[in-house]
Amino acid sequence: DGQIFACMDAEGGIYLRIKGPLAAELERSGAVPFEITNSKTGKTQRMGYWSLPESALDQPSEACRLARLAIKEG
Q1: What span, in angstroms and rounded, lies between the C-alpha atoms of 58 and 21?
Q2: What is the per-residue pLDDT across 33-72, written as a single tens digit (0 to 9) for each?
Q3: Which of 30, 39, 48, 49 could form a disulfide with 15 if both were Cys (CB 3.0 to 4.6 A apart)?
Q4: Within 13 A of 66's CA, how many CA atoms are on the CB side?
Q5: Where would I find the H helices in the chain?
Q6: Which long-range CB contacts under 8 A does 19-23 form with residues at least 24 apart?
Q7: What global pTM score does this model have?
Q8: Per-residue pLDDT, 73
Q9: Nearest to 51, CA basis, from 71, 73, 25, 20
Q10: In what order do the strands lie in the sheet with 33-37?
Q11: Helix/strand/coil percent split, the chain, to 5
């Protein structure tokens, strides 16, 4: 339905648009936030996206579960 729920960085890392309790769950699993550094000011800003944890990269069913939750939250 045109909902953006994920993005990919230049190195191929996959990030899901996550908030609330699911973000905390991902962080506990080793996920890291997607951050952008402004080249003019040097300030870093979090964008509300979290990487897939390593376990989800090796298990497509886990990656799909997290993606479905991201879509549901969105």
Answers
A1: 23
A2: 999 999 999 999 988 999 999 889 899 999 999 999 988 8
A3: 49
A4: 29
A5: 20-28, 54-58, 60-73
A6: 19/48, 19/73, 20/73, 22/66, 22/69, 22/70, 22/73, 23/50
A7: 0.82
A8: 79
A9: 25
A10: 6-8, 14-17, 44-51, 33-37
A11: 40, 25, 35
Q: Which residue type does 14 have?
A: I
**Identity of residue 58:** D
Residue 47 backbone dihedrals phi, psi, to 5 degrees: -110, 5
Polymer length of the chain: 74
Q: Crossing angle of helices 20-28/60-73, nearest 10°? A: 150
pLDDT digits (tens, 9 = 90+) for 9-34: 889 999 999 988 889 988 998 999 99
Query: Which are the contacts of 54, defined by CB distance < 8 A and separation ≥ 6?
Result: 30
Residue found under tokens 């191929």:
12
